[in-house]
Amino acid sequence: MTALTMSVLLQVSILTSGAQPYEQAHKAAMESGQPLLVLVGAPWCPACAHMKGDVVPELERRGALKGVVFSQVNVDNERDLAGRLSNAGVIPQLILYRKAADGWRRWEVTGSQSPEAVQEFLHNGETALASKPEAAAAPKAATASTAKARHMN
Description:
By secondary structure, the chain is α+β, with helices and mostly antiparallel strands.
């Protein structure tokens, strides 16, 4: 019964945050060409809870998530997917895939961020907080078999 309750709570939190399950978000980004934003974290992580509970809702209030496809990946429930998407397992990790003329590009920031920093990250992809972009073919599908995908396909 506890597992069922946790599953329901997880689904409700995804629905109330505007986040889509990764598989749906990936498909939507591939079809629309919109940027894909993924928050990788865990419920036991204080910085992740801050990002999910404070920063993301503030970004939604500001309209900063319009024009992007947004997903959250729980490292405990989706360990393989989180491992393929994230860099060295550091959480929270915010990953942005943006389509460019020569393919998809990937940026990431780790740790707790302010709404302003995330908004800047979304607009530019290149902030002082972000890693250098990596060339990428396309976002990795959730069913990909590679162990440490660093780009989209």
